[in-house]
Amino acid sequence: MKIVVCVKVVPVSDSIITIIPDKNIIDPTNLKFDLNPYDEYANEAAVQLKEQFGGEVIAISIGPERDGLALKRVLALGADRLIHLISIDQPLADPQSVADILAGAINPISPDIIFCGKLAIDTGNGLVGPMLAKRLDLPFITAICEISVENNVVKVARETEKGREMSECPLPCLLTAEKGLNKPRYPSLKDILLSRKKETIFQNVSVPEKSSRLAKLSYPEPRPAGVVLGNDISVVPELLRRLREEARVL
Question: pLDDT, tens digit, for every residue of 165-196?
């Protein structure tokens, strides 16, 4: 089984964000970077299928040259080789452009399954996976939390507001991984040492902003200070009044 997993390097969630106003970009100077958490679930799913059925896991990523160090971890986590599409340092690239570039690189591989994370935590749009499937003319299922493969048919589960939803589709297909799909493994020292011998292919690509552009970056509005009404049961009527008349949540 040939499996492709799309991964992205993103700022870690506890990074301090600083906006450069005149350039309308986030200052990367003091940011810490690592693999997108949802992509780790995708990679683990790919590696588990390889362990079950044999084959190869090929990781592919678009990003600046600085992502190289973080991307080495995907090899230690079980991917067999890595394709790093090196782009200009443009963390908020248009998802349609990203899907176009990924499709061009993945199409010659002809994988049985493509895994993506449900979304990247820096942009949060969740668009690249479905757009990539559309460009490759593949069926896709998003945000899966369970997977099995039998007789060239993939069966998955999704958690929805109405409960657990079961779906299936034939291979080849594209799947995006939800948190809880599995428990990503920790690389051992042996895995880290072996990853240094695995193949990494570097390709320079241009990721233009085609269908959308970033209009403005701004910090969230500061939250108003909290109000302490009291510390005994006598404040309950006033609390209920404020929840009903001011907050309008009752």
Answer: 999 999 999 999 999 999 999 999 999 999 99
Q: What is the largest CA-CA distance in the chain?
A: 71
User: What is the 3 state secondary structure string of the chain?
Assistant: CEEEEECCEEECCCCCCCEECCCCEECCCCCCEEECHHHHHHHHHHHHHHHHHCCEEEEEEEECHHHHHHHHHHHHCCCCEEEEEECCCCCCCCHHHHHHHHHHHHHHHCCCEEEEECCCCCCCCCCHHHHHHHHHCCCEEEEEEEEEEECCEEEEEEEECCEEEEEEEECCEEEEECCCCCCCCCCCHHHHHHHCCCEEEEEECCCCCCCCCCCCCCCCCCCCCCCCCCCCHHHHHHHHHHHHHCCCCC
pLDDT tens-place string over residues 21-73: 777 778 878 888 999 999 999 999 999 999 999 999 999 999 888 898 899 99
Reading across the β-sheet that carries 163-170, which strands appear in turn? Answer: 163-170, 153-160, 140-150, 173-177, 113-117, 2-6, 56-63, 81-86, 199-204
Architecture of domain 2-204: 3-Layer(aba) Sandwich (3.40)
- 110: Cβ–Cβ under 8 A, 6 or more apart, which residues? 2, 172
Prediction pTM value: 0.84
Cα separation, 162 vs 177, whole angstroms: 19
Q: How many CB atoms lie within 10 A of CB 9?
A: 25
Identify the CA nearest to 76 among candidates 177, 193, 168, 238.
193
